[in-house]
Amino acid sequence: MFDGNWISWSLSIVVLVLLAYLISVNQLLSQTPDEIRRLSGPRWTPQLLRETYERLRKTPFDYKDKLPPRLHRRYIVTGGSGLVGGYIVEQLLARGTPGGHIRILDLRRPSRLAVDFASTDITSAASVSAAFARPWPADAAPLPLTVFHTAAVILAAERSAARYAFPETVNVRGTRNVLAAARACGASVFSATSSASVCIRPVRPLWFPFSPRERGNFAQVLDERDFLRPLRAREGYFGNYPASKAVAERIVCEADGEGFRAGCIRPANGVYGDPTDNTVGDPLSRDVLPTWVPHIIQPFIHGRNVALAHLHHESALLLPQPSCSGRPFVVTDPNPPIAYADLYAAIATLSAHPFAALRLPPAVALLLSHALELYDDHLAPRFRFLLPPLTGDARSLKPALFSICTHLVAADGDARKGVQDGGLGYEGVVTTLEGVVREVLEWNREHGFDCEGEEGKNGGRVKGRVAQRKTYTTSLSLAEKIQKSLSLSLS
Prior knowledge:
- The chain is about 40% helix and about 15% strand.
- The chain is an alpha/beta fold.
- A seven-stranded parallel β-sheet has the order 3-2-1-4-5-7-12, with helices on both faces. Strands 6-15 form a two-stranded parallel ribbon.
- Strand 1, helix 4 (about 85-95) and strand 2 form a beta-alpha-beta unit.
- Helix 3 (about 45-60) crosses helix 10.
- The longest helix has 27 residues, at about 5-30.
- The chain is globular, with a radius of gyration of 24 Å.
- The protein starts with a helix and ends with a helix.
């Protein structure tokens, strides 16, 4: 028989080993590699944030002189009511394209853009074809056609094979439908929004806690090298969203040819620029944000910069024998990557509403994410009569987030090359500091509050009678609505 003390000692050793393992995982996920820290810019101080806020409050944001010259063409923008598509339409109008020469294809009507609109479900070939076939004004009909394809669904936390059908339907089948309609209508330029997340390798924090950092993919570069290799299997991506976007990107680039020039723009992680975005708009909507990523270094990109990259892309694709066609280009803001702590500092310092980042131990969040994934992807679907599905934040806390929320650096050198060298001549017009501060400024104004000078400040916080936070439809909530609608239509 086993001695009781021996069993107790054995259990104690197991517990200590597990504790040491979790501490190692937590330390690994809490570190910022020296090489990444050196590539990052200096942290944003309250003084810098206030000075930038005042400068942007007093000076209108105008970058019309940085836009490529107007092209006499007509335009279809899928997803034109969204973040990137909306800025593309805004820039087309700003450089002189008449509103009647622009058509938005989306499920939602744009609220502030005076252009043609066609309610369109890109998962339906008939719906897309009908939207493309609608008559144009007499002065627009003879013009050549450019298609900017920005429509997509983003559910970055999902990686289960059982949940791949929805992003595949929208992001892959939808792209095929739009591409087919564009070719049938004689479009000559097709510029699609991809994602730099397609090149992110899955992070393995539970596999390599005692091994070199590189083996777990904790620091990665966002570039285009993966495009030169065969597509990975779905499991080779951190989630279903990048897997579907990678397939769609290949479909677009392979369609490139004489008379139909096509390619993709890959925005770096953290696309922002509107209260509906998940990067800045989501934290702005909260009093308290539970987070394990304040130390994480990542490149952000403002929607204006993504749109500008698309306009440069269009111009480059129209060159005779363009060397930039049939491939993707990574783009990012024109500054070093920032830490999420900078974003949180900007909101806490400048927002009219209270905000605090509640830091969680990464290992605790990681274990919880695995438990929630087990429940939502395996137990709840199997025992629907007993277990309700996850909703809200709980549904988004899954292991895939630890891949998209790892240390990243964007390499956009190819996009910044001149068109004669195979690039796009891209140069961002909004820095991340300016873009984030501007979004907080616009948030304050939309809620009926605008701070002037130092008056109304108290210890870095703005004070006064502030309206209750508005509710916005984010890309995540919109994707969930579309998924429910699509499930009902197919049932």
